[in-house]
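In practice, a research group might receive sequence data for several interacting partners and want a quick structural hypothesis before committing to experiments. The following worked case mirrors that situation: the sequences arrive first, and a predicted assembly follows.
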Amino acid sequence: MRISFSGSSAPVYGQLSGAMAQFRTRFAPSPTGLLHLGHAVSAFHVWKAAEVAGGEVILRIEDIDQTRCKPDYEAAIYEDLEWLGLEWSGEVRRQSDHCEDYQHVIDTLAARGLIYRCFRTRKEVMAEMDRAPHSTPAAFVGGPLSFEEESERIERGEAFAWRLSLKAVRETLGNQFDTLGFEEEGEGWQQIDLALFGDVVLARKDTPTSYHLSTTHDDALQAMTHIIRGDDLVSSTSVHVLLQTLMGWPTPVYRHHPLLLDEMGKRFAKRDKSRTLRAMRTDGVSPSEVRRLAGAA
Ligand code: GLU
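A structural hypothesis for the assembly, expressed as tokens:
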């Protein structure tokens, strides 16, 4: 089943009727390299959870960064998952086919004054953060330019990113701003401190969306009830919950699993070529051995 925002009928976010309103989760890799053992760990967590709950898994290709994503890597994702015996439901959603959906969210947030155009270079952002009192490296708080300056720079064709205005968000949400959080399965309620995030980039200069925006949009559009992913993404969840709140989308239950570490205690990365699933397959490793290595046997 394919649920898409493109086309004439308005989407219904986060709602599936009747029998469909069950445990629904997704595996959402980015085709920027071959899948490795760390991805297999994540995939096994996702499929296991769906199996236990009698739910389903959707496959989503998160390829908004067209400078780094490659069709060959996407093809390899299908091949590797099939080799591992992991089947997904319905059609695959490829994010790069749906840029207008993400633009619609940007337009909505801009019309509500919740985001602003940011023309700053990385260097300028760093310099401003250095000057700001009590700033932490991750938290940049800027603000829009004057209407005149902004119009001039747009006219000159200068590139800009869209940043969430923490100030506008605080004003819009009122008391709710300090009580936002999410349910982490097995851990309970997690309170969010939005001040740690500053004015988050929601669309980049070179890509008219961002991971945060497109993932959160798609999780709502595809009616995810559970998000299962590595604990490297736990801080992103705060931004996702904020977006859900601003857009009126439901917040799923989250489960962040520990990452697989190598012998040096470092997380697996795409550069660890010997541990790609393709290399393992070529070396004669069996899918059940991959399961064992991933701690899922
Ligand atoms: N596309 C992301 C990645 O490959 C995962 C996104 C998510 O699970 O939210 O790291």
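Before designing any experiment, note the following. Residues 28-30, 62, 215, 229, 233 surround glutamic acid (CB under 6 Å). Strands lie at 24-27, 56-61, 93-94, 115-118, 161-164, 181-184, 188-191, 201-203, 226-230, 253-257.
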